[in-house]
Design brief:
The chain has 258 residues and is of the alpha+beta class.
């Protein structure tokens, strides 16, 4: 598998360290760089990088601008339940959460009482807010290598896993879309797109020489649902369908373009 090409950065990168001499010791130059990095890191996260903090002592940031749906929290909880909590929350010296609000909710959902945290000690109020935004925004800039992702998910789906594949964060529908159509159960060859050629899977083309089952203006009742055969461009259609209710989902066919 080829590695993705690295993009060029304007920031200068230090030259690689010289080859370590036999015996495992490192050069004075490399040791100095390591000490400088450690000192800089200690200013940010303190002497002890990981602390185990009671979950009730962690205070969510009231100015956290990121919103998390219950569906996301449940998926995250399922992932943590499958793999364990691998990582840490980021808190400040007052136990206020800077990064990891969704993970905190998922951990509470799973009943965690103590969670690993990294405590930052030297950020200003403004830097904390900017870091919280960056922690969320920078992740949004990433994209999937769709062909590679399809290969990995398809391979995982054939394994006898100790966890559900949905622990990856994709639900069943998304996994089906990512991995492509299921094979023909009768082992027939698929069409050009790989879909089944089973006659039972093919849609019947409508004909004009048979009476219509549904006509313009018909409203079908399916328990609590109302389905209208109408013109999506006509306001009367919505009044007839919705009555005094607000729409939740609107589905129209391509005929509205005609």
């Amino acid at each position: 598998m080829k590695r993705a090409e690295r993009k060029k950065h304007t920031r200068r990168v230090p030259k690689p360290a010289k080859k370590q001499p036999e015996g495992g010791s490192i050069s004075g130059e490399a040791a100095s760089r390591a000490l400088a990095i450690a000192a800089d890191l200690s200013k940010t996260v303190g002497a002890s990088a990981i602390e185990f903090v009671p979950i009730t002592a962690i205070r969510p940031n009231p100015r956290n601008a990121r919103r998390h749906t219950s569906d996301q929290i449940e998926r995250l909880a399922a992932s943590i339940g499958a793999f364990g909590f691998i990582g840490a929350l980021i808190i400040d010296d007052a136990n206020e959460l800077l990064a990891g609000h969704a993970r905190l909710k998922a951990l509470k959902l799973l009943g965690y009482e103590v969670v690993p945290c990294i405590r930052t000690t030297n950020l200003t109020k403004e830097a904390k807010e900017a870091f919280a935004i960056a922690d969320n925004q920078l992740a949004l800039l990433a994209t999937w290598d769709d062909p590679l992702l399809k290969d990995i998910l398809s391979e995982l789906s054939t394994k006898d896993l100790e966890f559900e594949l949905e622990a990856t964060g994709f639900d069943t529908v998304e996994l089906d879309l990512r991995t492509g159509p299921e094979p023909d159960p009768y082992a027939r060859s698929g069409d050009a797109d790989g879909f089944s050629t089973d006659p039972d899977d093919l849609l019947t083309e409508p004909t004009d020489d048979e009476p219509a089952v549904s006509r313009l203006g018909d409203i079908w009742l399916a328990k609590d649902h109302r389905i209208l055969c109408g013109d999506a461009l006509d306001p009367k259609s919505y009044r007839a369908l919705l009555l005094d209710s607000a729409p939740a989902i609107q589905m129209v066919t391509e005929t509205w373009q005609r």
